[in-house]
């Protein structure tokens, strides 16, 4: 559905310019492919009935409110506008439409919106605007005269305009949607129509209901959700490092990490992370120990992740650009024994943990042959990583992920997204966001290559980086 109702300035009477001025500069629609049909009709179930408690509010106004709610949700906006016709018993033509503009907030009740419609009513002569305009992309026609006149009015509306037509015949009514498949898929049009009918049935039953309390999920939506989630992924009782080790064995010379500061093959990543794991195990890192990682995007950040996982511990990324008090709050929560950092942040991180380990090319444990990694003691139900949210109360809240849960999701993601050895994945998201864990670990499980930009490229030259590193 188009995300703007007015996509270029149109000629309006002074009455309409003021309430609609904020919509005149809406961003243009994206280009859409050519469709194959126009004006397909989809009907709501026969004898759809609206039950109205308050007689002073006419059914047509409820239909307008229900459509406004639909638009508000699809546009993610509390302010919506659309064309509609004035509904009067003696009306004999609808070649003139009026713009409806409403403000909808979750804390308001349906009665408040109905009053909003009443207050904005103006004499028909002042409000009427001829429908021959290309500006609006949504219209609602209530009880239009049937036959040639209705078809004539439909012809006046701009191409691509989504139109809901309501015919009321007490005690029932029908809804029809007219749309252009160049702009909206027929499945989506059917869904919108059924959602409109579903909301309308609730409004008629209780006009005192709060907008935020309305159930916007139609019966068909529930059926579709049930169908889409019918196949639940089979739980995979594995550890992440074991799956990645299998990848290393299958393709030891393949590139695992291609970063601005250098590449690592699967063999190199396995060797370096095993050395680090042995060093961490000697420091007492094991299952349920959370180790903070404070890195910019770098191949050494991937080595640090894998080193912690192989040692049996769990990791949590800290963003060195965040205020020190936030990082201290997180570290006070997890009480780390050690923190792994890049060469840029050792002094900064002394305020977060007593033992600071720098992971870079010069780290001494790369050449320490006295200790070898003897395997992880982590189990499928062991903690893999933690992610801290911003916290609505101002205090960061941690979310924990276990090995088996991640492995189950990763395998399903690989199948759904077609990830495999030829995948070159652009790792854009901040390391403190959960999606970065999927970007990195799922790619390694699939045997793909993680492409890590410098901070400059990440902020200034994404397209250039994608081309240079052949991201696919």
Automatic annotation (TrEMBL):
Keywords: Ligase, Phosphopantetheine, Phosphoprotein, Transferase. InterPro entries: AMP-dep_synth/lig_dom (IPR000873), ANL_N_sf (IPR042099). One of its GO terms (cellular component) is cytoplasm. GO terms for biological process: amino acid activation for nonribosomal peptide biosynthetic process; secondary metabolite biosynthetic process. The keyword Transferase applies. Residues 245-471 form the AMP-dependent synthetase/ligase domain. One of its GO terms (molecular function) is transferase activity. Belongs to the NRP synthetase family. This is AMP-dependent synthetase/ligase domain-containing protein. It comes from Aspergillus transmontanensis.
